[in-house]
Amino acid sequence: MTKHAFPLLMSPGRIGPMKLENRIVLPAMDMNVSEHGEIEQPEIDHYVARAAGGAGLVITGACAIAFPFGAASLKEPGLSEDRFIPGLAALADAIHAVGGKLCIQSTHHGKVARVDTANDRELITPSLPDYTYSMNALADCTPEELGKMAAATAGKKQLFKEMTQDDIDTLVRDWADAAERVAKSGADAIEIHVAHGYILGVFLNQRDNRRTDAYGGSLANRARLACEVIAAVKERVADRIAILVRVSGEEYGQEGGLTLPESCEAATLFEAAGADAIHVTGWGRNPFDNFTDGPLPDRVGSYVDNAAEIKKHVSIPVIVVGRMLPEVAEKALEKGEIDFAAMGRQLLADPELPNKIKAGKFEQVRPCINCYLCVNENFFDDTPFCAVNPALGNEKILPLTPVTAKKHVVVIGAGPSGLETARVLTERGHRVTVVDKSDRLGGTLWFSTLTTPDNERLLNWLKEEVDRLGISVQLGTEATVESIRALRPDHVVVATGAKRPKPAVPGGDLPLVQTGDTLRALMLGTAEKGDAGLVLRALGKMGRLSGITKSPAAVREMTKKFLPMGHDVVVIGGSLVGLELAEFLSDRGRKVTLLHEEQQLGLPMAMPRRWTAVKHATQGGVDIHRRVTLTRITESSVEWTEGEGEAHSAKADMVIYAEGTHSDTSLADALGAAGLSVEVVGDAGAVNYIHGAIHSAWDVATVL
User: Fold this and answer.
1) How far apart are CA 124 and CA 113, in angstroms?
2) What average pLDDT does the chain have?
3) Angle CA 271–354–368, to nearest 5
4) Sequence-ordered alpha helix ranges (H) in 493-594
5) Residue 524 pLDDT more than 70?
6) Based on C-alpha coordinates, what's the Rg of the chain?
7) In what order do the strands lie in the sheet with 646-651?
């Protein structure tokens, strides 16, 4: 088997009465694009793109069985009335037209049903909640973000109701009725959600379910409601559609959460009740503290071990979600640990992943960089977007429009915005030349891979695309008006990135003070005298000569063992770059002090990633100070004030200034003044990091 062959992943499979072309599943991810419970065309376009891209099974986002009751959003598809069937049928027909299979995820959100809260309705629960979550992470949300989150529930207080037997009977009946509508629509399967804090999931765990009747106590009792729902659905739809059941293999972050042995026992009960497959997920019980434990983990293959254990206890297929990259899925299939792999964010980043694998073009798969921007919007009841795929939620912009007249476009800068601009322009039919003064592709993206390894996947993909498309690249080339004019371009795109100055305080120009630009120069071995100490400059040059620094992975590993810098580091600026650098250096044994002028750390990271980064930095020993005013840098310390003007200082062998980053259009202005046709993309025009780089590239390259 070749390195990029996936014979098991691409082999056919079966779930109940449903035959599937391969083992790749799009799991439920809410799109929030349909109004008042009725599926509309943008939602259909989204799912059709994934089905046409080759996914064996497409599962919709959450659909409310009792809509609008028990719904998380008024943009969530409903299953409670026959008026919803035409939208479901239109989706099923469209999926089938491209050769795909459709599963409708059915839910009742219970105690997290935001629509009920917004309308002063009681939230149904197995038992009245007797705990509160830590909300400390919200200290790193902006007032705008907090306002948008509050708007989703109209700022209302949650009201809870412990379910009676009548409530339970109604819920079971509503679920069976919903399944009947799913079957009538022509969909191929229904997924019953028994996880993530929704009503069936909270009955299943001991922390939320303290009942003393037939629905509480033992695991069999706590699983009773889910089993009654599964059995009622099975009786109603028989073998017309497949029945999937989604369950957490484990719950994280709070004592009394569901354990793996309990999940194994529950899975056997679900199979006996009529389930055709078990879909294993995970749940971090406090969304503001351990969200990245689940349901959207930050570790590759997070739930494979749990799925493998559950598979030992059932005879029906097991699906697993949790950063299931193709290579991870193939290995798990080979070992018999799973039967199907659910790839959520990866199929948002590239819906053509299955087709590319089937065609032997795995290296062309656009990777997810695990940034959580897609998930972030769900906190606001808004439509997800993707940092690396501007077509998410706007599928009509594809396929790319071929050019009517081929032109020569020179792209200045080989960072993410420049390379993506060059890629899209070339795909459309233009001739592109990329120039960059560096000795390698990637720009700031290359440097970011040191602290954020997931970014290396994007870097490698862009490099592969440059090679595949035969784009002309001139490295080690300084861009001037004269050198660019000599290339005789029809258009020029400036993608030279941002400027990162040193701090404008006393001592800001001392040799121990580094910026993102000087640190990158050090790693590339191009630092000038005075930019750093002799040891660091020598290390950079040695790395450049030996080729070590051309491999971000090698640099990450090397710096764990050998990092020739002092023990005490002060990072000034706690936005995205500063926070990640602080964590990186702390992991390498440095005593790090992080100073930030504002309250919120980690901007503009997506909230779940931001909360996790702050948590990890704190746990790693980073000494964080917010709302500070920097006063002076000396040859051995940094001084600042905070609070009511109280003076502080920290010892510093190195100071990293990660603030003050600003766009720089000086080269673009000069080229324009010389009469050249110029566009600006990426941080050169507006500092918005990878998301801004890729999206601004498309804004220009799709119309030029």
Assistant:
1) 9
2) 92
3) 95
4) 516-524, 534-546, 552-561, 576-587
5) no
6) 27
7) 628-633, 637-642, 646-651
In the predicted model, what is the mean pLDDT of residues 258-273? 98
Is residue 244 helix, strand or coil?
strand
Q: Poorest-confidence range of 9-13, 24-28, 545-549, 624-628?
A: 545-549
CB count in 10 Å sphere of residue 499: 17
User: Cα–Cα distance between 237 and 522 in angstroms, integer?
Assistant: 65
pLDDT value at 162 more than 70? yes
Cα–Cα distances in angstroms (integers) from residue 432 to residues 429, 436, 472, 534, in the given order = 9, 13, 7, 40
Tens of pLDDT, residues 270-317? 999 999 999 999 999 998 888 888 888 989 999 999 999 999 999 999
Place of tokens 């000795």: 439
Q: What is the pLDDT of residues 146-159, one digit of tens each?
A: 999 888 887 789 99
Among candidate residues 458, 407, 459, the one with its CA nearest the CA of residue 433: 407
Q: Does residue 527 or residue 176 have the better pLDDT? A: 176
The one-letter amino acid code at 338 reads I
Q: For residue range 405-457, what is the model confidence (pLDDT) as tens digits? A: 999 999 999 999 999 999 999 999 999 999 999 888 999 898 888 888 999 99
The one-letter amino acid at 47: Y
614 compared with 292, residue with greater pLDDT:
614
* Alpha-carbon gap, residue 451 to 119, rounded angstroms: 44
| Pairwise CA distance, residues 197 & 202, whole Å | 5
Any residues with CB less than 8 A from the CB of 21 and at least 6 apart, and which?
12, 54, 56, 99
Q: Concatenated DSSP letters for 195-214?
A: -TTSHHHHHHSTTT----ST
Q: How far is CA 310 from CA 254, 259, 313, 374, 635, in A?
A: 22, 11, 5, 29, 59
Rounded to whole angstroms, the Cα distance separating 138 from 288 reads 7
Question: In sequence order, what are the beta bridge partners of 277?
Answer: 244
Q: Please, which residues bridge with residue 473 across strands?
A: 434
More confident residue, 85 or 548: 85
Percentage with pLDDT > 90 across the chain: 79
Give 12-42 as a 3 state SS string.
CEEECCEEECCCEEECCCCCCCCCCCCCCHH
How many CB atoms sit inside 10 A of residue 121's CB? Answer: 16
Q: Maximum distance among all alpha carbons in the chain? A: 83
Rounded (5°) CA angle 599-605-610: 65
User: For residue 531, what pLDDT is reported?
Assistant: 47
Supply the DSSP symbol for 662.
B
Distance of CA 403 to the CA centre of its chain: 33
Q: To which residue do tokens 């996947």 refer?
A: 457
Distance CA 266, CA 668 (A): 62
Question: How far are the Cα atoms of 186, 190, 579 from residue 227, in angstroms, in the given order?
Answer: 24, 15, 46
Q: Give the tokens for residue 212.
A: 């003393």
Asked if pLDDT for residue 112 goes beyond 70, the answer is yes
Q: Confirm if 316 and 276 have CB atoms less than 8 A apart.
A: yes
- The predicted model gives 2-13 an average pLDDT of 88
Buried b (16+ CB within 10 A) or exposed e, 160-180: eeebeeeebeebbebbbbbbb
For the cut 60, the answer to whether the pLDDT of residue 539 exceeds it is no
Question: How does DSSP assign 457-503, residue by residue?
Answer: HHHHHHHHHHHHHT-EEEES----HHHHHTT--SEEEE----B-PPP
The DSSP output letter for 605 is: S
Burial of 312 (0-12, 13-18, 19+ CB in 10 A): exposed
pLDDT band at 678 (very low <50, low <70, confident <90, very high): very high
